[in-house]
Amino acid sequence: MQRRSFLIAAAALAAIFGASAGAHAEPMKVSASIW
Amino acid sequence: MVKHVGGDRVEVFTFVGPNGDAHVYEPTPADANELSESKILFINGLGLEGWMTRLEESSGFKGAVVTASNGVAPREMVEEEKTVTDPHAWQSLANGKIYLANIRDALITADPEGKATYEANAQKFLEQIAAMETTVKQAIAELPPERRKIITTHDAFGYFGAAYGMEFIAPEGVSTESEASAKDVANIIRQIKAEKVPAVFLENVTDSRLLDQIAKETGAKIGGTLFSDALSPPDGPAGTYLDMFRNNIETMSEALSS
Q1: How far does CA B104 lie from the centroid of its chain?
Q2: Of B164, B228, B227, B219, whose CA–CA distance to B195 is shortest?
Q3: What is the mean predicted confidence (pLDDT) over A10-32?
Q4: How far apart are CA A11 and CA A31, in angstroms?
Q5: Smallest Cβ distance to B16: which of A28, A30, A34?
Q6: B2-56 residue pLDDT tens
Q7: B15 part of contact set with chain A, CB < 8 Å
Q8: 3-state secondary structure of B90
Q9: What is the pLDDT of residue A19?
């Protein structure tokens, strides 16, 4: 039971931080004519 | 410049690549696709990118358009009895600082979470621009005043000349679209001979044949290649904005000091 709770908590944290890290890891796309 | 300020937080797609000509660039379907996915479009402005409006329309771009030259004092000149704006404002490092601030502010507006990164990167770049400004001014100060005259193909160095006290003469106008007339070329040949202009310089974005001919007829030497409107490939002599200045001032100094 304890192990299951731990896994759920770990999954929740991964989802939160994963999403957050993903937002930063994905660069903003921009275009520039020359510079 | 955008990549320098944006760092890892931005992915920059550049339309006009190394040695490309922004005056007459012809956009591709791939450009429209890239633009449609972009959050910001950075343009030079001052009439440089006549092809951009059509590209924007065809791509369905919905992001923000940022004119990097906003805030510079435009240089105007008369060509064939018409007043035209010189778009090459980046050729003054003081204007480069204005471009940098506009790019930084636009990135912060679009991605406020990255404010600290954009400010730090811009500050670092600003210091490098200031150092380059000192280098350019020192190099020109070392040249005898009567040798501070340069012939280039098209009129791309007006802001540079005004900022650092160098006279540039060009048979073509501010755009590579215009061709030099026989009368313009004859006038320049006369001027080179009368004023003893020591060197003519090729440009990375223009055909060298006209200047080769002028050099032959006047005896002026070919001083090297200047980067005016586009950078070299990354591993070339002018792969970044600052390397462009470094290459140009070294090329000018070498040709004009001897």
Answers
A1: 20
A2: B219
A3: 65
A4: 37
A5: A34
A6: 999 999 999 999 999 898 888 889 999 999 999 999 999 999 999 999 999 999 9
A7: yes
A8: helix
A9: 46
Q: What is the pLDDT of residue B173?
A: 66
Return all residues near B120 (Cβ < 8 A) that are at least 6 apart.
none
Pairing of strands B75-79, B82-86: antiparallel
Distance between CA atoms of residues A23 and B251, nearest Å: 45
Instruction: Give the one of A30, A32, A35 whose C-beta lies nearest to B39's C-beta.
Output: A30
- Going by C-beta distance under 8 Å and a sequence separation of 6 or more, which residues neighbour residue B151? B168, B169, B170, B171, B188, B192, B197, B199, B200, B201, B211, B214, B220
Cα–Cα distance measured from residue A18 to residue B217, given in angstroms and rounded to the nearest whole number: 68
pLDDT at B141 over 90: yes
Going edge to edge, which strands form the sheet with B221-226?
B167-169, B149-151, B199-203, B221-226
What amino acid occupies position B110? A
Alpha helices in chain B (DSSP H): 2-6, 29-36, 52-59, 93-110, 115-141, 158-164, 182-195, 209-218, 241-257
